[in-house]
Write a structure and sequence with these properties.
alpha/beta, 5-stranded parallel β-sheet, 18 strands, FAD/NAD(P)-binding domain, binds flavin-adenine dinucleotide, 20% strand, 430 residues
């Protein structure tokens, strides 16, 4: 049995670490193969175009590849043993191994930068000897009841497939190709090379954390630049970060996620994740005098005869154009489109036939407890789309340990354990 994972990010590492522990405890685990085009933890480095690398991690680093250390599928005693063994891959263990733990605690447990987080993920990858195929996946096709994964370095066949990563950067189809009109990916690559912007004004389109982070970086590096965040919500809402909200991300079952109405689940996600700013970035924006929020729905951008960037904005019945020296379009990510782009003809027809249509809505509605498309074989795990059906923490870093249990439970028979280390049945465990 072979399980393929597209992307060597935190999700792949969480699954690999759990598989490693389950194997150590005597379970029959699937062989893993991870396809990665740019290196382990690539999306947390500046070369990804998603970050400067120096941005702070939004979630606490304790939400690491084992979090919340509450396996629940393998029987009480085994679960406790798994939770204990998984701590070898924790953020704390990494800090101890690199002799930084005491200092990190004494400094008040600061958020690591994305680059520090990448170093942690690389450390986990080394410890589990992550089996990586260093190649870009170009197609996912069905063949003889398995997935045929075509990469830039050849073909592989797997019995199940997990697709990770945020997906494609969303941008309007008619975005002009111009050095002063940038997508998120262009922006961070430019910014790493030269953070100074010529001119007096910049617009940032978007209402989420990425837009806020870009606006803050631009404004801080260019005090003379007036930065406007163009937001359809007309306001910078800070996200809910209290215990009640956080706990739903960590443990959707205890928090009765599955009992909530669909409408309430969507409302929760929009209050806590999509289109809201974290309290930390909101505080940073509040300190910057050269950032403002402009209400409006971005409808397009053009370059006029004077080579000016003209953004078109709609708000209620009003239509407005605003001229900027520089514009960044940060409209989120498209995971469903990313998967669709990779599907071969047979796979696309089979999935479309299975679901009626391949859209964000049909895909989200079909995600089962294994974080895969319900009833579809071979399994296609899409944790990025599991938020609505299974819990809002599955698409992000909020419960990676739980995520790994959900995925692996589809491949590891609970009764497959053949040998358990002796202390396993110690009195205190039972
Ligand atoms: C800048 C930024 C900051 C974030 N901060 C947080 C945070 O603090 N907390 C949080 O919970 N969430 C955060 N997120 C959300 C984040 O996307 C997820 O939480 C997390 O990255 C998911 O991990 P992952 O394993 O799915 O993917 P990733 O870490 O994104 O890894 C995906 C990997 O897939 C590879 N890949 C992509 N396409 C291919 C292909 N065709 N072939 C081969 N390999 C491919 C990429 O190179 C990449 O290494 C952040 C996202 C961004 C963009």
């Amino acid at each position: 049995m072979k399980l393929g994972i597209l992307g060597a990010g935190p999700k792949a590492l969480a699954i690999a670490a759990k598989a490693h522990v389950l194997k150590q405890l005597g379970f029959a685990v699937p062989e893993l193969v991870v396809f990665e085009k740019d290196g382990v933890a690539a999306n947390w480095r500046p070369s990804s175009g998603l970050t400067s690398g120096h941005l702070p991690l939004g979630t606490p680093p304790d939400k690491d590849v084992g979090y919340p250390y509450a396996s629940f599928l393998w029987g009480d005693a085994v679960n406790r043993r798994i939770n204990a063994e998984m701590q070898a891959f924790s953020w704390q263990s990494h800090m101890i191994a690199t002799r930084e733990y005491g200092e990190w605690v004494d400094r008040g447990r600061p958020a690591p930068s994305h680059l520090q987080w990448a170093a942690y993920l690389e450390w986990v990858a080394r410890k589990v000897e992550l089996p990586v195929v260093a190649a870009e996946v170009t197609q996912l096709e069905l063949e003889d009841g398995r997935w045929r994964v075509t990469t830039s370095a050849g073909e592989h066949h797997v019995d199940g497939l997990v697709v990770t990563g945020p997906g494609d950067v969303r941008s309007p189809a008619n975005l002009p190709v111009h050095p002063r009109v940038r997508t998120v990916a262009d922006f961070w690559l430019d910014f790493a090379w030269n953070p100074r912007i010529e001119g007096r004004s910049a617009g940032v389109v978007g209402a989420g954390e990425t837009a806020a982070t870009i606006a803050a970086a631009l404004a801080a590096a260019n005090p003379g630049l007036a930065v406007e965040i163009i937001s359809p919500q007309a306001m910078a809402f800070s996200r809910g970060e209290s215990y009640a909200e956080n706990h739903v991300y960590t443990d959707p079952f205890q928090a009765n996620w599955l009992q909530l109405t669909r409408e309430d689940r969507r409302h929760f996600v929009s209050r806590t994740d999509r289109g809201v700013f974290s309290v930390a970035i909101k505080q940073e924006l509040d300190r910057l005098r050269n950032v403002e929020i402009v209400p409006g729905l971005f409808t397009g951008v053009a370059i006029d005869a004077l080579d000016q960037v003209v953004a078109h904005i709609a708000y209620a019945a009003d239509r407005e154009t605003r001229i900027y020296d520089y514009l960044v379009v940060s409209m989120g990510f498209d995971h469903t489109g990313f998967v669709a782009r990779l599907l071969g003809e047979r796979a696309r027809a089979a999935l479309t036939g299975h679901l009626g249509a391949w859209t964000q809505e049909t895909a989200e509605d079909a995600i089962d407890q294994w974080l895969a498309v319900k009833g579809f074989r071979p399994r296609l795990h899409l944790p990025m789309l599991a938020g609505l059906n299974q819990g809002p923490g599955f698409p992000n870093l909020s419960c990676l340990g739980r995520l790994s249990d959900h995925v692996l439970a589809g491949y590891v028979p609970i009764a497959s354990v053949t040998h358990l280390p002796q202390p396993f049945f110690a009195e205190h465990d039972l």
